[in-house]
Amino acid sequence: MILIAESGSTKTTWVIAEANAEKQRFQSQGFNPYTQSRAQIVKTLNEEVRPFVKDIQISAVYFYGAGCSSDKNRELMYNSLKECFGIPEIEIEHDLMGAARALWFNSEGIAGILGTGSNSCVYDGQDIADHIPALGYIMGDEGSGAYMGKKLLRDFMYFKMPEHIHEKISDRFGFDDSDILDHVYKKENPNRWLAGFTHFIAENIEDDYCNELVESAIKDFFDAHITQYPGYRELPFGVVGSIGEVFKKQLEKVCKEYGIPLQKVIKSPIDELVKYHLKETENEDATRE
Fold first, then answer.
1. In 3-state terms, what secondary structure has residue 138?
2. 237: which residues sit within 8 A by CB, 6+ positions away?
3. Which of 58, 101, 149, 281 has a Cα at 20 to 30 A from 194?
């Protein structure tokens, strides 16, 4: 059995698979080695993952995670997973590689992530060939759920939004400025909290203010990331992540304005990653024979 995980900052989807078939699927909290310690990660693994796999013989783990771009962070995740599962066959990849493999398998293209956070890369069919740095929810994450939530709350606090939207937010959430600042600067996982406001934005997307907020955030993503890649209009472009799916209409409009060929939008890459790894396992078995 192999275990495949696709992890964002908010949630992780796990799939146990074998012999060209998915056997079991479950979810846990998200993981991000930039914002979580090894102790926190191991605690979540033991509480939310081990109960599903304790009686199953896992031969390999393939983990795709937010924040797993540096050697230091990959080592942290590797050691955490090894402590939990006790096996050496563990592959840690950035969620960007997961997005690229899910979208393009072994073909070239541009992969974008629009979820709680955002990221992008040029994929040559095997490796990430070009990559604009992702700066996280404080300095970057353009187009992401956290970015949209931040824009919404900033406009709320500055009274730079229509009065009826301001009243809706006040009535719905009942917080004041100090509550918002506490969540952003003092409490855990502020990026997740900010991204949660995309539910409100989606519910009110027919309002010009919310629609323009989303389009503006996506344009910021394109300006900071996609348009920086040479030949970006010639390569197929695809997006993974819940924000890309929920605001697909706005994404398509912005792509058209920028002359970018949007070919795929996938809410979660896990289904395609399962297919990818089962195919790779099948190829390896055939080679050994």
1. helix
2. 109, 110, 112, 226, 255, 260, 261, 262, 263
3. 101
Residue 112 to residue 130: CA distance in whole angstroms: 12
- CATH code for the domain in which residue 75 is found: 3.30.420.40
Is the separation of the CB atoms in 228 and 101 below 8 Å? no
DSSP H or E stretch at residue 210: helix 208-224
Environment class of 102 (CB within 10 Å of its CB; exposed 0-12, middle 13-18, buried 19+)? buried
Instruction: Please indicate, yes or no, whether residues 18 and 110 belong to a single structural domain of this protein.
Output: no
Per the CB < 8 A criterion, the answer to whether 201 and 148 are in contact is yes
170 and 58, same domain (yes or no): no
For 215-226, how does the pLDDT look when each residue is reduced to its tens digit (9 = 90+)? 999 999 999 999
Residues 113 and 248 in one domain: yes
Q: Domain of 254?
A: 106-266
Instruction: Assess contact for 65 and 78: CB atoms under 8 A.
Output: no
What b-and-e string marks burial along 191-230, b requiring 16 or more CB atoms within 10 Å of the CB?
bbbbbebbebbeebbebebbbebbbebbbbbbebbbeebe
- Ramachandran sector of residue 241 (left: φ over 0; alpha: ψ -120 to 50; beta: rest): left
In the chain, the amino acid numbered 51 is: P
Same domain, 175 and 277: no
Which tens digits make up the pLDDT trace of 165-189?
Answer: 999 999 999 888 889 999 999 887 8
Task: Indicate the pLDDT class of residue 126, thresholds 50, 70 and 90.
Answer: very high
pTM: 0.81
Shared domain check, 138 and 203: yes
